[in-house]
């Protein structure tokens, strides 16, 4: 019996010990994961890394159309894919042109990047670069960085024909520059620019090109559209072909001098001459005045949002703070047409910054909503979708400025007539197609957005307050229904004037003092 008892006891003790061992092991694993999560939270960089579009956006049906390159891959994420074979040829042409004009050899530039490769690698999510060793990643960054800078230089100087790059490839290429998954570190571009004798021209090219995608000219829209879609120099910025040719000859001569003599002083002298030749482009912002962007898409976002009311320190944690009056924020209007009916009219803003939206009260029942001008074309959808995707990156603390703008614009656009009214106010320039297409575009982009309710809160509040005012809405409705035409108003004013004259005449007829002679005759 004792043996039997001991055997049975042994059988039960062994599984128990095994169970305790498994439980202890799982606890250790969980503890290790929690410690790792804590360390990751402490060590997370304040600068967002270049990464793939967040997973729930990748599940959309049109993901490939809006988030992946059409012509050229510029970084490690899409490198080597066969459908970018033609784009790879264009990249190499641009890279070759950049190196020739830089005054440096390919080996010099390669060495500079290789020396910084560990720092550059940290600009990407780990999974993005894990398949590339240092040599392979250095080559990718060298070709991609040189190609970007030369593309921007050629775009602002109208020099693509010299490289035999077709116009359609140029147009699609400009969309590829602003894709989240196609970005390269801005510090890489800075490194390459500082290595070139054309450093100032290259920096100006970036700022000018970004301006093209931010600013909307008052007039000459057709001319503006042509250089927007087929990048070329603006008339006031362009140099003559003779000057361009002379500039190129000087640069090539300098390159030959450096290769043969390797004299840094001569290279510096050539750099200064190059700086003196080219005047700063219009709207150029000094790089020294602002912190360096993370990449080109970040530069575009900052410039689009820049303005006196921009909230640079806004973070995700501030989004749900200081909401004191929900009713004031709640939006009961549906579109621009309803705002007009309530006496709120549209006015083109003085600049193109997305943060510059404001509401002003006019006399009595009238209000004005000031909106920055915007151009809608084939690049609008992918550009804004990638800006929104960038703001949604988990490691990017930001105020969701672009997301909030699109959400606000979507609240104004419900159908084609809303787009038409924005066009008439010269706020929206439609180069996409019909007004129905534009309305559909913003309705689709505006789906499932979570804006920062602090941005435009005052504007929404003032609009809602005006919209809820019954007497102002009633007067505005009367004027909208009966006096929308100036002739109707003139006719109404004429009737009022005639009525006033009739009343005055009648009053004088009844109350005018009579002549004494007539009064005495009657008596």
From TrEMBL:
InterPro entries: DUF247_pln. The chain crosses the membrane at residues 487-510. Residues 1-26, 229-293 are annotated as: Disordered. Residues 239-262, 270-281 have a biased composition (Basic and acidic residues). The keyword Ligase does not apply. Keywords: Membrane, Transmembrane, Transmembrane helix. Residues 1-11 have a biased composition (Polar residues). The keyword RNA-binding does not apply. It comes from the Eukaryota. It holds the Pfam family DUF247. PANTHER family: BNAA09G04570D PROTEIN, BNAC04G53230D PROTEIN. This is Uncharacterized protein. It comes from Quercus lobata (Valley oak). The lineage of its organism: Eukaryota, Viridiplantae, Streptophyta, Embryophyta, Tracheophyta.
